[in-house]
Structures are given as C-alpha cells and as structure tokens.
Design brief:
307 residues, alpha/beta, Indigoidine synthase fold, 11-stranded mixed β-sheet, 47% helix, globular, binds pseudouridine-5'-monophosphate, binds manganese (II) ion
C-alpha cells in the first residue's frame, strides 16, 4: 500500500505486503501521556511485547511532512523528549503535515492513519470519551467520532474514570460501534478492572474476537470496534485510591480553567502526581497487557486470510 503522505518503516512495509500480522501503536501516550524517561522505556517495551506475540509493531507519528508508519529508535527518542511535540487529533493532521511539524497522534488520528496504511489492529492504553460535565462543556473526544467512521479495532483497557463512562458507552452505541469486554461482563475502567457498567458484548478469546472483526468487515461496516481488556489483577489500583485522585484532579483542572486539547494530558499528569506514581506503574502494566492481546488478535486475523 502506498500513499503520498505515508512513510513506512521497511519492516512494516514488508510485513503488510506479505499479509503478516501488524499492530499499530499511538504516540500521544509517549509524548503527552507519560513522563520521561518511563514513556520511552514503555514505548520500546510495548514494541517488544508485540514482537514476542508474533506481530510487527508500527508506532505512528507525524514527522517532516509525512505520517510515519513505524518508527526507529531515534524517532521514538525524539517523541519522548522533545518539548515541542504537538498533540494531533484528526482535525490537526492537515496542518501538521503541511507545516512539517513534529506531532504525536491520538487514538482518532492513529486510527485514521492505520486505516490508510492497511493496518486493522491498533493497541493503546485507554480511549478518549465523553468528559464529565459534557452536558455543559460539550467536551466529547474526537476518538468516539473516529470509532464511528473508521474500521480499525482498538485494543484498550476501557477508559479512565476522569470520563463519564456511562455516557461514553451511550455515544458508542449511537455510532454503531461494537464494544467488547474481554473475559468478563463489565466494561473495564483502565486503572480498575470494572467500571460497574456491563459492556454490551463479551468475548473470551482472540479467535472469537477475530471472527467478529471479519464479520463486521464482511457486512461492509465502516465503524471501528472497541476491545476492552481489564488490567491484570495484580496491577490494578484500589477503587478508593483512584476515585479520590480522579476527583482531586478534576477539581484542579476546573480551578485552573484547563480545557480543550489540554484537558486529558493535564488530568493524566495530575493522577501520576496524586497517586505518588502508582498510576504510572498501572498504566504501563495495562498497555503491555493490551499489546499481548492485540498481537494475538492480529495473528488470528492473518491466519484467517482467505486464499
Ligand atoms: N486516555 C488515556 N491515556 C492517554 C489518552 C487518553 O488514558 O494517553 C490520550 C489518547 O491519545 C487519546 C487522547 O486519544 O488522549 C484523547 O484526548 P482528547 O480527550 O483530547 O480527545
Ligand atoms: Mn476534548
């Protein structure tokens, strides 16, 4: 697959040409979701987890006027350390590409890029969603809009309780997006295994998930799919600890008047601070868990390719 605005790492191009499993990764989590140096260490470790699972990782970012599909070590380092990395959602891609800016892609922009590149599975930590108080702020992540329009499977640990998870599930239903909890009935809440809300669907194996994805494709569905797997038990945070930290982080954001594209990075950084770093350990553990599942799904999809 070639496109004038996409630049593939050779390893990713070869894997796609041979229909071998490939898993896309986002870069906002590196540039704006975790502090240095653990962001860089995590980016490398997660790529290794995907390789161990039998797939080729393709971390996506914007550099020098192209969308990079797969990054080398120096490029990962730039994203993890450069203070001027822009946070790019779908709306920002035309400008960032035309202006030659360095940018990290959100779930929405990474889905768009993965689909252009012919990659069907994408691993992240948590998706954006409907923010608490959205009835007055109108803050609904473009990730949900993208899930309604781009057929890429997004493997995540649910969404953080900085969001209104009930409203997030409602919007996904409206947009026709299948939301699958893996191995349990509850929709996971990122740091904790359960949001207290049942996910609309439950599947227990990568093979069952792959069959559902292929069936969506056969129907000609244009939507993405949310595949939400809970953080491993040993890495989950206590409900009360994270509940208090989320309330305090939201209060600080409101007092500081933080909104728009800065809201999510501000809240993520506050949570790390307020939990004394424990939220970061959990975040890293769950992204690695998501990477293992994403690789397994990509392997199942490749094995089911007709012909
Ligand atoms: N939620 C997380 N960690 C993250 C993000 C969300 O738990 O790193 C990032 C993702 O890149 C997501 C973006 O796509 O934030 C959503 O930003 P916004 O709410 O501004 O749409
Ligand atoms: Mn927003």
């Amino acid at each position: 697959m070639t496109h004038p605005l996409l630049a593939f790492a050779p390893e990713v191009a070869a894997a796609l040409a041979e229909h071998r499993p490939v898993v896309a990764l986002e870069s906002t989590i590196i540039a704006h979701g975790m502090p240095y140096p653990r962001n860089l260490d995590t980016a490398r470790t997660v790529e290794a987890d995907i390789r161990d699972g039998g797939a080729v990782p393709a971390t996506i970012a914007v550099m020098d006027g192209t969308v990079r599909i797969g990054l080398g070590p120096d490029e990962l380092g730039r994203l993890a350390t450069d203070a001027g990395v822009a946070k790019l959602s779908r709306r920002d891609l035309p400008w960032a590409l035309a202006a030659g800016r360095l940018g990290a892609t959100t779930v929405a922009a990474t889905m768009q890029a993965a689909h252009l590149a012919g990659i069907a599975v994408f691993v992240t930590g948590g998706i954006g969603g409907v923010h608490r108080g959205a009835e007055t702020s109108f803050d609904v992540s473009a990730d949900l809009e993208e899930l309604g329009r781009t057929p890429v499977a997004v493997v995540c640990a649910g969404a953080k309780s900085i969001l209104d998870l009930a409203k997030t599930l409602e919007v996904l239903e409206t947009k026709g997006v299948p939301v699958i909890a893996v191995g349990q009935d509850a929709f996971p809440a990122f740091f904790t295994r359960s949001s207290g809300l049942d996910a609309p669907l439950r599947l227990d194996t990568p093979a069952a998930i792959a069959r559902t994805l292929l069936t969506a494709r056969a129907l000609g569905n244009g939507q993405g799919t949310v595949i939400a797997t809970p953080v491993p038990e040993a890495d989950a945070l206590p409900d009360a600890l994270i509940g208090r930290a989320v309330d305090a982080a939201l209060a600080e954001a409101e007092a500081a008047g933080v909104g728009g594209r800065d809201a999510t990075p501000f809240l993520l950084a506050k949570l790390v601070e307020l939990t004394g770093g424990r939220s970061l350990d959990t975040n890293i553990a769950l992204v690695r868990n998501n990477a293992r599942l994403g690789a397994a799904i990509a392997v199942e999809l490749a094995a089911r390719r007709p012909g």
